[in-house]
Amino acid sequence: MKKVFLSIVIAAVATVASAQKQDTVIVELAKTSRVIFTVQDRSDLETLKQFNFDELFDNIIAKLEKNDTTAIVKSDTTKRNPGDNEEVYWTRDGHDDHDNDNDQHDWNVYKHSSHRGRTWQSFNVDLGTNNYLEDGKFPDNENQLYSVRPWGSWYLAASSIQRTRIGKKFFLEWGLGMSWYTFKFQEDNVLMTKTDDGVTFTESAIEGASYKKSKLSASYVMATLIPVIDFGDNNRKPRLFEGYGDSFRIGLGPYIGYRIGSHSKLVYKLDDDVEKDKDFKNFYLNNLRYGARLQIGYRSTDLFINYDINELFVEGKGPKLNAFSFGIIF
């Protein structure tokens, strides 16, 4: 068994290792069983040639029969000597359980001494809705022209997120990406104007015009730093609709963004033609936005709430508004 199996693995690994720095070889063993080899360095081929696969498979099967779980053995290129501790990771239902005991008779493996694999990368998309508060109240209460509609005031963000393990159930999620604010005003004929004194909100009154929508949009480059407690000890957050994972997780941390664009948009119908008036000005929007982000997740669903600590407009140039958004993380 060893020679046949090893020949297949070495041949496959040699083929893919010569093509790129890291690749994965999957060997199908039975109807629902397979072995996955991930290779980062071609020099590992010499290590694989010395591996006792017969004894390894005997012990894997014994472990499976006894524990009803999946065994994963991590190793480096230093061969284990009698009496050395090996680091064996057991996973059950997507959770990690570290078994670092000295089972000399169980495994003929290699000692794991590096810390590689502590950071996992993912791509997150936030989809939600925006609004803002003025002195702790919604502008709707004062019937202000800059009051917004929750439906149509969309928040969208796309970020590359790194999840670094700090402790057993403690992680640090940090990332960089883009975000887009859209504030759709309650009234469809709101006209934004930038003057030397500040930004004004008035009602457009074009004769014969039928107004469709009015909104303010702004885009930002964003950076986040969110400490997360994951009670399931998951290396990575389960993705929406993956259907696994049963743990609760919560995180709270800061974010900061730099504005790279903004514009107003007024849409109306005039003489059977649809007109879209866009004004690409900054409207005294603050170049920076920073605040606090709360993430709450259970199973494969995660929600977020962002609250901007600083005001949307430059002080004295617009209404005192603190923007916030909330929604779901994909």
Question: Can you tell me about this structure?
Answer:
- With 330 residues, the chain is mostly beta strands.
- The chain folds into two domains: 2-99, no CATH class; 119-329.
- The chain is built from three helices and 16 strands.
- It has helices at residues 2-17, 44-49, 53-67; strands at residues 23-28, 34-39, 70-73, 88-92, 95-99, 119-133, 154-165, 170-184, 190-194, 199-203, 210-230, 248-270, 273-279, 288-298, 301-308, 322-329.
- Strands 6-7-8-11-12-14-15-16 form an eight-stranded antiparallel barrel.
- Mean pLDDT is 79; it is low at 16-21 and 70-117.
Task: Please outline the helices and strands.
Layout: H1 2-17, E1 23-28, E2 34-39, H2 44-49, H3 53-67, E3 70-73, E4 88-92, E5 95-99, E6 119-133, E7 154-165, E8 170-184, E9 190-194, E10 199-203, E11 210-230, E12 248-270, E13 273-279, E14 288-298, E15 301-308, E16 322-329
Antiparallel strand pairs: 1-2, 3-4, 4-5, 6-7, 6-16, 7-8, 8-11, 9-10, 11-12, 12-13, 12-14, 14-15, 15-16
Structural features:
47% strand; 3-stranded antiparallel beta sheet; 330 residues; 3 helices; 2 domains; 8-stranded antiparallel barrel; single chain; mainly beta
**Oligomeric state as shown:** single chain
Order of secondary-structure elements: HEEHHEEEEEEEEEEEEEE
The fraction of residues assigned to DSSP E strands is over 45%
Distance between the termini: 44 Å
User: What is the average of the pLDDT values?
Assistant: 79
Record field, number of beta strands = 16
Strand order of the largest sheet: 6-7-8-11-12-14-15-16
Cα radius of gyration in angstroms:
28 Å
**Could you estimate the helical fraction of the residues in percent?**
10-25%
General form: elongated
Query: What is the count of structural domains?
Result: 2
